[in-house]
Amino acid sequence: xxxxxxxxxxLCSVVPLLCGALLGKCGLxxxxxxxxxxxxFEPVDNAADSNDYPWSMAFFTPEGASEGRLxxxxxxxxxxxxxxxxxxxxxxxxxxxxxxxRRYRPELGGREWERVYDSGDEGVPFEAIxxxxxxxxxxxxxxxxxxxxxxxxxxxxxxxxxxxDPGTWERVFxxxxxxxxxxxxxxxxxxxFSTTVIDVVDDNFGTVEGMIFAxxxxxxWPVIEDGFGNxxxxxxxxxxxxxxxxxAGTRNKHEGFEIWKFAGSGAMxxxxxxxxxxxxxxxxxxxxxxxxxxxRLYFGTLIFGGFVNFLEDRRKGADLIRIARDDSWETVIxxxxxxGMGPGFDDPRNHYIWSLAExxxxxxAGTADNSHVIAWAIxxxxxxxxxxxxxxxxxxxxxxxxxxxxxxxxxxxxxxxxDGVHWAPVFTRGLGNHNNFGLRTMNSASxxxxxxxxxxxxxxxxxxxx
Length: 466
Prior knowledge:
mainly beta; 4-stranded antiparallel beta sheet; 8 helices; 30 strands; 41% strand
């Protein structure tokens, strides 16, 4: 009997270890996540500011601090802005709301996010309606580690703080143009960032100029000013340092995205094309999401236009490609891809691969799903011509009829892969909320994988592993 008791004790000690190892090998499942934000951080604040998008995320540990924090930058009332432009094309009267930077304080409660910066405090008119990028960088000029945040608004600007605390954020670059700072990447001792102009182009809420700047923390100077020589490269969306080069993914709705590489600021006149014409398909409008995984550079594509793409020649899901050190590339997700899965992970409604992250040795890919617009169109066929021309407010189009709320696939998807080739779904319905239409950001930090969902109806949501 004593031997049996010892055996039971040993078994009870070993089984949890084995289960933990097996879970690590199997990757995450839907039940591994718990919600850590509510209604755009706070219901009252969300009602006033419309915290729709968790546009950026970064984990930052200030020098001298015992622990770091997760920071998130909002995108505010972006759907309202898009609706307004669809109806009037009047950029000067946009219904803008002030953007915020929050940091997660779980010790104060499971869903407590401290406001560390609010662009509304700048006065009226405030400049920032969103913080579209976030990245830590040790400034070459003074050796200090900062958290940088790139804004979208009336004057695209770069902010930073050495502590992340309220009252410490300073604006260190003002572009002087309405637009965004989208790409933000440290490379070769400098911080590079890409700018885009907010304007109305061919009735789209789009951009007319793609530029890349560099800074040492003190001085800012332009590196790429002409869209890599192609006027159809409207913007550079993604920047990623890989294999000693800085890779840049563009948006090009006429010919398909391009990916270029250059060594750095000193080699600005010698960029090298790596992928052109949208990679596997010229309908891939943008190379918008980049991550290095297992010594390869992955790019997820974005196809703009929502339901309109289903009625025009771009009705396809997003693709995923990867680039090797010798710059050879292959399609992972897409037509004839090495995974065997077609565009959008075999679902054409997944028109963005909007986020990529590595967690515990696995690669995770999050999508944006345009099922809401499709569902609305099904029951509003008489108004379909208005939807096609962009003259019906998208705010109405995203109101999913109750009878269609449980259609399979509504809500963002998350997929996982151990080798970048073989993929399996983690979830396909926005973690139980079909209004979570896009998995905009992911961040792997401090033993957790954080997921940031875009949700214009309920307010953005952030979840993390338990």
